[in-house]
Design brief:
Layout (H helix, E strand, L loop, with lengths): L33 H8 L6 H17 L13 H12 L4 H9 L2 H4 L4 H8 L1 H14 L13 H11 L3 H16 L6 H21 L3 H15 L1 H35 L5 E6 L2 H10 L11 E7 L2 H14 L1 E2 L5 E2 L12 E6 L5 E8 H9 L1 H4 L10 H11 L1 H10 L7 H13 L3 E4 L5 E4 L5 H8 L1 H5 L1 E6 L2 E3 L11 E5 L8 H6 L3 H35 L5 H7 L2 H6 L5 H9 L5 H8 L15 H4 L4 E2 L8 E3 L11 E5 L5 E5 L12 E2 L2 E2 L8 E10 L4 H11 L3 E10 L4 E10 L2 H12 L4 E6 L3
Parallel strand pairs: 2-6, 13-15
Antiparallel strand pairs: 1-2, 3-5, 4-5, 5-6, 7-8, 9-10, 9-11, 12-17, 14-15, 14-16, 18-20, 18-21, 19-20
Helix pairs in contact: 1-3, 2-4, 3-4, 3-9, 4-7, 4-9, 6-7, 7-8, 7-9, 8-19, 9-10, 9-11, 10-11, 11-12, 12-13, 17-18, 23-26
Length: about 750
């Protein structure tokens, strides 16, 4: 058990990774020697072969960088030593240490990747190669205005190959920031801006708080020096005034915990300058409104003891409502775990108290690096470690997956997706089995579905959130339990889903599915157009084979089509009719060829459809497919009912053969309306029917036979209605207006 005397020691026994050094009078950081590095690294690396690898890497780097100096004045070898020292603080393996020592040799000397591979093996060569490619994106001759998303994307592409590449690159950037004083102001700003945009977000997601925090503070120092110094002065002033209060609080908590016989140690921490800057200047807090500037950290042995200490603290001090967070029960995506509560101390000051175990504390400071510390004697497998990381940090799998699409993704879209889907994902939602899925603010159940699996997203029809059935556009919040409902009859990805989805990954999957479906639909439309053409030509006693021969380049040129597929697609979409082609080719049957009788002239002006050479025969519009002016049509000679006019694609006349007859719309037809049966598919919601009727009213469209029902399995509202429109263009305009309504994802004409 830890004694009361031990609780007074507030610094850790093991030096924390990338722990900010105390600034020396000259503004620099203490410099380490190779002997310092060797002592630290060999404290956990005992294998002689592994030690030799590190020593050989140093000797090679020293030889290759001999005679070269940094702009700060020290020999260049100092930089690799410092990078390796930061890595040794994280207790990385010998391959990673060797790569840290050699990371600049290929870029700056005559050493090649093959040279490194021969002497140090594939792992070291791969890490150095990836770092070299990243280094070639450096901004050595760029100004702040020259930053490009493409540069940043390539940096991430290099880091996604292996987590060790990320760790070494972060250490490299941290030491560069520590020595920025030697560079020109524009270069300082450029590197600092890049650090905040590229490196600190991924350090945060990997949970390497110490490294992240120091990089953020140093970057702010060069980007906003006035605000940096203002906050630094405020911290110094408040710390002097509150130090006695803080010590009293720590002693009081220590006494209470000690009385209960719970082993513990205590620390205090000051919130980072950059974190305070974000609250003050981005969230508009006053400095005195930031309650967690000073925090007391209680570190114990077990999870149960964490909750026991929390109970002691809450029983003694008044907690501030809404400020308690249980990151033990629900860890952050970077594996951070701790209990956070904010209390009012006995003298009225407000402090944050953090309670965690030793293991949690190590992960909180070192993140992913703490979990995968080098273990002597264990066989290291880079692929297994990468998979292990992807399993524990599920966002990392998305990061790798997004980075694998380097040849297809637009750089700006890639960076926006990375920022939104991964770096800014702070909504935590549970699956029914308790797995945590992190999403950005505003994400919907559809985003959640695609996070689970692409197939789940594609077949999603609704969701159950906290026991209640909801549509796919429902916005999720932290703590929700979400289950996705799927169906083989799901309408699947469509343009409306692109409005519902908020994550770039979901949008990307939806777009791909739409493109795939579009290709299928195009082929389907081409076939429909071709079939319509065949039927129309057959009505002129022209065979399919002869039709194919007739539709030559002259026909394509006449209708401005690149190929016959485009022509048939245009026929399917009614931009071109088969009879326009027939007329252009001058192959329409003469009136004398039709053995029917001409229709009464008194009826010609009233009938919407004209049948050349027909008289005294009834003509009616088919009720099954509801043709309207603008549709491609064909007449069906019925027994006893005259000529019934169908849409040329109507399945009810697919096998009519010689009983069809060419017909066309009356060009002198006056304004009239025709009934069309349609169905509207939408996610069920309040006021849906009101909005649909509003569209009909705005378009001045009469309706009849309106019926609506909800498919409970998918929470899809299906509205059937007969609308009265003048032509096909008016109907298309109506469809466009209906599809623009919230939650409407499809509108179809119905064939009975």
């Amino acid at each position: 058990m830890i004694t009361m005397e031990e609780t007074k020691v507030e610094t850790k026994t093991n030096e924390a990774p990338s722990e900010p050094k105390k600034i020396l009078p000259n503004g620099g950081y203490p410099m380490h020697t190779y002997e310092d590095l060797r002592e630290l690294a060999f404290s956990y690396i005992k294998n002689e072969k592994s030690r030799k690898m590190v020593a050989d890497a140093y000797e090679l780097a020293k030889t290759k960088h001999a005679g070269v100096f940094r702009k700060s004045g020290e020999p260049y070898i100092q930089h690799p030593i410092e990078v390796a020292y930061i890595l040794a603080q994280l207790q990385v393996g010998p391959e990673t240490l060797a790569a840290g020592l050699l990371h600049d040799t290929v870029e700056d000397t005559d050493l090649t990747i093959e040279d490194i591979r021969k002497q140090f093996g594939n792992d070291v060569a791969m890490i150095v190669d990836s770092l070299t490619k990243i280094q070639r994106m450096k901004l050595s001759h760029r100004t702040e205005q020259d930053f490009e998303a493409e540069d940043h994307r390539k940096i991430f592409l290099g880091m996604a190959k292996d987590v060790r590449v990320i760790i070494v690159k972060l250490a490299d950037r941290l030491h560069n920031l520590r020595t920025l004083d030697a560079l020109k102001p524009e270069r300082q700003k450029a590197l600092s801006k890049e650090t905040l945009e590229v490196f600190t977000p991924i350090a945060h997601r990997l949970g390497i708080y110490k490294m992240q925090s120091e990089m953020e503070d140093l970057s702010l120092k060069y980007l906003e020096p006035d605000k940096y110094n203002e906050i630094l002065n405020l911290l110094n002033e408040r710390e002097k005034n509150r130090q006695e209060s803080l010590n009293n609080l720590k002693k009081r908590i220590a006494d209470l915990v000690f009385e209960q016989g719970i082993p513990f140690r205590m620390e205090s921490r000051v919130k980072s300058i950059y974190s305070i800057y974000r609250k003050m200047y981005l969230k508009h807090y006053n400095f005195d409104e930031i309650y967690d500037v000073l925090a007391v950290r209680v570190i114990t042995n077990t999870i149960l003891q964490c909750y026991e200490i929390l109970g002691i603290v809450h029983a003694t001090f008044k907690p501030i409502p809404g400020r308690f967070k249980d990151y033990i029960a629900m860890p952050k995506p970077n594996m951070y775990q701790s209990l956070h509560t904010t209390i009012v101390s006995g003298d009225g000051n407000i402090y944050e108290v953090q309670i965690r175990t030793e293991e949690m504390d190590q992960v909180a400071e070192e993140g992913v690096a703490a979990h995968w510390k080098y273990k002597e004697g264990s066989s290291y497998n880079a692929r297994e470690e990468q998979k292990d990381i992807e399993d524990k940090l599920h966002w990392f799998r998305d990061f790798v997956s997004m980075s694998d699409q380097e040849n297809t993704a637009d750089a700006k879209d890639y960076m926006a997706a990375l920022s939104n889907d991964i770096f800014n994902a702070n909504v935590y939602v549970f699956t029914p089995k308790g797995k945590v899925i992190d999403l950005p603010n505003g994400a919907t159940t559809l985003d959640f579905a695609y996070k689970i699996h692409t197939k789940v997203g594609d077949s999603a029809v609704g969701a159950v959130v906290n026991g209640t059935m909801v549509p796919l556009n429902t916005i999720l919040k932290t703590g929700d339990v979400c289950e996705i409902k799927t169906s083989k009859n799901s309408p699947g990805p469509n343009q409306g889903w692109l409005e519902i989805a908020k994550t770039a990954s979901a949008k990307s999957h939806i777009k791909k599915a739409i493109q795939k479906n579009s290709a299928f639909l195009r082929q389907e439309n081409i076939q429909k157009g071709y079939t319509a053409c065949v039927e129309s030509f057959k009505a002129q006693d022209i065979s399919e084979a002869d039709m194919v021969k007739m539709i030559d380049q002259k026909v394509l040129d006449e209708f401005h089509m690149a190929d016959t597929d485009s022509l048939y697609e245009a026929i399917s979409s009614r931009n071109v009719t088969p009879y326009q082609i027939i007329d252009f080719l001058h192959v329409r049957k003469k009136s004398s060829d039709v053995k029917e009788i001409r229709h009464h002239s008194s009826m010609d002006a009233k009938n919407p459809v004209v049948v050349d050479g027909v008289d005294n025969l009834a003509i009616s519009l088919a009720k099954c497919c509801c043709p309207i002016p603008g549709d491609d049509i064909v007449g069906y000679v019925s027994k006893g009912k005259g000529i019934i006019v169908h849409r040329i694609t109507c399945p009810n006349i697919a096998n009519a053969g010689k009983r069809t007859i060419p017909v066309h719309w009356n060009e002198d037809l006056g304004i009239s309306t025709y009934p069309v049966a349609i169905q509207i598919y939408a996610g069920d919601r309040n006021n849906l029917l009101t909005d649909i009727m509003g569209v009909f009213s705005a378009k001045n469209i009469a309706v009849d036979n309106l019926k609506c029902h909800v498919i409970q399995e998918s929470m899809t509202a299906v509205t059937g209605v007969t609308v009265y429109v003048s032509d096909s263009q008016t109907l298309e305009d109506l469809f466009t207006a209906l599809l623009a309504l919230k939650s409407v994802f499809d509108v179809k004409r119905i064939v009975h």
